[in-house]
Amino acid sequence: TLDLKARDAVGHLAPLTGNWHISRYGDAQYRWVDKGPQSYPARSDPPVVSKAGPGPLHVTIPAMSMVVVAP
Asked: Per-block average pLDDT, block size 10, for the chain (71 residues)?
C-alpha cells in the first residue's frame, strides 16, 4: 500500500487529499493464452475504476498490475 504525497511550493511533503479516480488493470481483467502464432487473450475486460476521497490517498498496487490515479 502506498501513501501518496505531493510537494508544496517550498518543498514540504503533504498527503494527497481530495477526490480521485483510481483505475486498476491486472490479472483479474486480462489473461493471455500462449499458443505460439495462435496465441489469444482468454480474458480482456476493461479496467476497474473506483473513487477515493476526500482525505489522504492510500493505494494498494497488486503484483503484475497497473494503477492510474487521476483527479
From this structure: 85 87 93 95 93 86 90 86
pTM of model > 0.85: no
CA–CA distances in Å: residue 27 to residues 6, 54, 63: 29, 28, 9
Q: Give residue 38's Cα distance to chain centre.
A: 30
Measured in whole angstroms, the distance separating CA 71 from the mean position of its chain's CA atoms is 13
Q: 61 to each of 3, 50, 65, how far by Cα in Å? A: 11, 14, 7
| Residue 63 per-residue DSSP state | T
